[in-house]
Write a structure and sequence with these properties.
about 90 residues, elongated
Length: about 90
């Protein structure tokens, strides 16, 4: 049973940018939602999030982070990606 189990996320400011913080946080939350058993059994240490990883669970966490706020489909169909006007 997973009841009573807790996870701890630790993030650094190695790349001190707001977009990096959000992507890393969402990446780690992706591990919690998609890889809970792996997190419980041995934990996960990500040292270079966002780089191309040969490991499926890392690519899945990247995909979760990329689509958490605006999905690839919504972005692909949006005209805002072509607009240079802030309005």
């Amino acid at each position: 049973s997973l009841r009573g189990k807790h996870a701890v996320l630790a993030l650094t400011l190695r790349h001190n940018r707001l977009d990096n913080l959000w992507f890393n946080l969402l990446h780690e939350l992706g591990h919690l939602t998609r890889h809970w058993e792996k997190v419980l059994n041995r934990g996960i240490v990500d040292e270079d999030i966002g780089g191309e990883s040969p490991e499926l669970f890392e690519r899945e966490a990247d995909e979760f982070a990329r689509n958490a706020i605006v999905s690839d489909d919504a972005w692909g169909n949006s005209m805002v990606r072509y607009a240079s006007d802030p309005d």
